[in-house]
């Protein structure tokens, strides 16, 4: 676990987009970024959950966030282009994006894999962040320093039986991070990936129903690495695969 202590105002003045901000790790990351001074843009598919995070941020007296309701399963390139334009109009630039939303899909042996489940997982976990990032690059380049953070997984770095579509999407996420980081070398934009590791969330409980969640780290435990990678303290980091645990 990274021994990093972010200054209270480490993200002051920054605008950071978090996908899947209504639940799990994304929700805690959005709250944590706001607590460190960022204006967070909360993107997710369940509006009620996004509104609850919005209200919690307001109640805590952190900078007023924004909400983008979007289901990545059905999102089109035009949705991302419109979103990027709105962000540019409202904030002028974007300092960071945490690509966190993901779908676990169906776990099981390869011969039981359904193409529709594979397509769905690849759309949400890979195509959506790829095309969203394409649309956002212009507004990210308007920030003095910008951080793009893709969320990976242990099974995106070492294959594991029965994790088919999800593992494929996470291996490809690591590849996307490396390609884009190489393209961004020497620019104001940096690109890295983060593997949260086993964390007490709904997704983990779905993948390991027999596990005692109390034995797991919480999303809050991971936040030093999530903060480090969004703050200017990580401005030298590019093209690296980080572990939050
Ligand atoms: P959760 O399932 O708890 O949360 C996932 C979030 O993504 C939810 O806010 C969900 O929204 C959102 N989301 C899912 N599908 C879509 C969609 N189609 N469009 C928009 N938003 C969507 O997952 P975690 O917090 O556990 O996971 C966060 C990230 O960390 C993921 O990328 C995951 O792969 C990764 N990870 C997690 C690990 C763990 O142990 N928890 C381990 C390794 C990696 P809604 O609630 O509205 O459905």
Automatic annotation (TrEMBL):
Keyword Oxidoreductase: yes
Entry-linked InterPro entries: NAD(P)-bd_dom_sf (IPR036291), SDR_fam (IPR002347)
Family as reported in the entry's similarity comment: Belongs to the short-chain dehydrogenases/reductases (SDR) family.
Record's protein name: YciK family oxidoreductase
A Pfam family of this chain: adh_short
Keywords: Oxidoreductase
Source superkingdom: Bacteria
Organism of provenance: Shewanella sedimentimangrovi
């Amino acid at each position: 676990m990274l021994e990093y202590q972010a200054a209270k105002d480490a993200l002051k003045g920054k605008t950071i987009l978090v996908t899947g901000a209504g639940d799990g790790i994304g929700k805690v990351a959005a709250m944590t970024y706001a607590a460190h001074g960022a204006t967070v843009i909360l993107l997710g598919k369940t509006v009620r959950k996004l509104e609850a995070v919005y209200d919690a941020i307001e109640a805590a007296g952190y900078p007023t966030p924004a909400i983008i309701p979007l289901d990545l399963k059905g999102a089109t390139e035009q949705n991302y282009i419109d979103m990027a334009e709105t962000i540019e109009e409202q904030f002028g630039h974007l300092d960071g994006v945490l690509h966190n939303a993901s779908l676990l899909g169906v776990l099981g042996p390869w011969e039981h894999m359904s193409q529709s489940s594979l397509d769905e997982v690849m759309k949400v976990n890979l195509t959506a962040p790829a095309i969203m990032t394409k649309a956002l690059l212009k507004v990210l380049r308007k920030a003095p320093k910008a951080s793009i953070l893709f969320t990976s997984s242990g099974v995106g770095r070492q294959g594991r039986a029965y994790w088919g579509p999800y593992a494929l999407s996470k291996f490809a996420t690591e590849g996307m991070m490396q390609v884009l980081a190489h393209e961004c070398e020497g620019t104001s934009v940096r690109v890295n990936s983060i593997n949260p590791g086993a964390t007490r969330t709904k997704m983990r409980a779905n993948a390991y129903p027999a596990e005692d969640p109390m034995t797991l780290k919480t999303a809050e435990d991971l936040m030093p690495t999530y903060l480090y990678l969004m703050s200017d303290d990580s401005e030298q980091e590019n093209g690296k695969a980080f572990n939050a645990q």
